[in-house]
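Consortium newsletter contribution from the modelling node. Members have asked for a concrete example of what our holo predictions look like. Here is one, prepared for the LCS complex that several groups have been discussing at recent meetings.
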Amino acid sequence: MKHHFENQETTVIHAGQEPDSLYGGVSVPIYQSSTFAFASAEQGAARFAGKEKGFIYTRIANPTVRALEESLTTLEGGFDASATATGMAAVSTVYAALLDKDAHVVGTASIYGPSRTVLENEFSRFGVSADFVDTSDFRNIEKCLRPTTRLLFIETPSNPTLAITDIKACARLARDRGITLVVDNTFSSPLLQNPLALGADVVIHSLTKFINGHSDVVGGVIIAREEALHQRLRKVLVLMGGTMDPHQAWLVLRGVRTLALRVEKSQKNAAVLAPWLAAHPKVRWVNYPGLESHPQHALAKEQMKGFGSLICFGLHGGYEPGRKMINAVRLCTLAVSLGGIESLIQHPASMTHAGVSKEHREMAGITDDLIRLSAGCEGVEDLQEDLRQALDKA
Ligand code: LCS
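And here is the predicted structure:
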């Protein structure tokens, strides 16, 4: 049963999370079982044949994981979802399911490093090729299309440069050319952007970030707009084994209930910190989709319901003062990942995107001075105080 409420704030709390049918537990039970008993040989056969509903084996499906899948399907407005062990399992499953030998991919240049590396280093062994371009300029996508292009894989806002790509325009182009459009929506969460409603075929998330929100679990999800595509993705996921564990699913279900509160608060903090950083004498540049100086500010306003809580910036003098700054933070945590209740700060060129060559990083705008801040839910004055004292040491 899927619930459609007027407000996403209600959906995050209730979709897929009705009291359990056995004892009325308000929290979805953790079905920590790898396998499910059949009443008879006939029932087992019927379940395997798909003639009878019911659980078989946790790699195929599990009640706790299904509850999370239902929640996320409703939030993104898809046909159905498949939860994955990590965000990278979602990315790799999409590639494995949708790319044949010698297929070509067009992707966003400033994408999470491993989403690019896995194509270039691993899928390339099967003849797959890829062009990673600045997809915020639509002409760049058109220019590198080939007859063998099967997949347009975009991240918007992108990691870590926060470039915004026009989802509707990409959907139109993909539809005309018979290409599948996949959007990594991790940076926005389903509360700030719904790519399927803008015409994308598939949305993926690293649940490790906003959706779980507590930096205590990894996970991912693939949500498809249509049944046939969902079935294809699910089949490959189950065969390749990157599915989610019920305990993981339960933690994410606990996290998703407060998604609306966390997104609202962290975004409010980012909206204060971005212009404040931009005005600081040691800061050379700031990129935040909510600032009018952001190159795609107007597009962000149009396709997103909010500008999110990621900010990137560089200091006068390059990375050396930046290094001193991130070593000096006390309240913010120097760590990769993002979208948690706590503020995290990191240096993409030497951390999340170190696996991408310097040449490719520079083409993607991931400059050596770029520092990425994920604003959390702390009091904004405390964050300002921490950043102020850290900048003093830069
Ligand atoms: N997609 C995006 C946009 C991400 O930011 C990440 C992880 C992934 C996919 C992969 O998800 P995972 O397997 O880690 O759950 N991004 C990270 C980052 O920026 N810092 O640390 C991890």
